[in-house]
Amino acid sequence: MSVQTINGVDVDQLMETIHVIEDKPDIATFRFTANNRWLNGGHNKTTIGDFYGAGETHQHKKTFVFDEDEPPVLLGSDEGANPVEYVLAALAGCLTTSLVYHAAARGYEIEEVESTFQGNLDLRGFLGLDDSIRNGYEKVTVSFSIKGNLPDNVKAELVGLAQQRSPVYDMLTNGINIEVELAQSK
């Protein structure tokens, strides 16, 4: 039996996963963890090594390390993308993956997806200079280019599906509860 792969996605495995989750919804609960350590100035390092899902803890095949910093104009040493740039990267990755997976599930072959994400932010909010200005992005604009033998209405449908099903898009557009606490000192 040959494996049906569309857009690099094993469609048979995708459908099997969907059916298993339909039968056992409790295995759909996942928990992801990131551990961060401040280094100096605006430089932080975040590591990601494992996650919980499908009823058990899984190790990534390697530990992922993200350096977060600020550019010199924002008093950093430019050792990594800044946190708001990581938000754009997370949104880009999640929307793109959602688009590609849903295209594969519907049998649509895509040759290439490119996108541009821009976020507008006013530092006066972060600096506490004007309480009427939010601390984060005021607006994010996204532009997708999809190459493939698909009519424009199908491409637009896929962009819409990406927005409807992307977890990161959902978190950013609907907000989430975040509980912050001070842990016991070491």
Defining key terms:
4-stranded antiparallel beta sheet; 2 domains; 8 strands; two-stranded antiparallel ribbon; 5 helices; 186 residues; globular; alpha+beta; GMP Synthetase, Chain A, domain 3
Short description:
Helices cover 33% and strands 29% of the residues.
Describe the overall structure.
- It is a single chain.
- Helix 2 (83-105) packs across helix 4.
- A hairpin with a 2-residue loop joins strand 4 (35-40) and strand 5.
- The protein is of the alpha+beta class and 186 residues long.
- It contains five helices and eight strands.
- It folds into two domains: 24-80, no CATH class; 82-175, GMP Synthetase, Chain A, domain 3 (2-Layer Sandwich).
- Helices cover 33% and strands 29% of the residues.
Mean pLDDT: 94
Indicate the proportion of strand residues: 25-35%
Give me the Rg, rounded.
20 Å
Q: Name the CATH superfamily classification of the largest domain.
A: K homology (KH) domain
Per the principal axes of the C-alpha atoms, what is the gross shape? Answer: globular
CATH class category of the largest domain: Alpha Beta
Proportion of helical residues: 25-40%
Which structural category do the helix and sheet elements fall into? alpha+beta
Secondary-structure element order, N to C: EEHEEEEHEHEHH
CATH architecture of the largest domain: 2-Layer Sandwich
Number of helices: 5
User: Within the CATH hierarchy, at the fold level, what is the topology of the largest domain?
Assistant: GMP Synthetase, Chain A, domain 3
**pLDDT < 50 runs, ≥5 residues:** none
For the largest beta-sheet, the strand count, sense and barrel status come to: 4 strands, antiparallel
Measure the end-to-end span: 56 Å
Count the strands? 8
Number of self-contained structural domains: 2
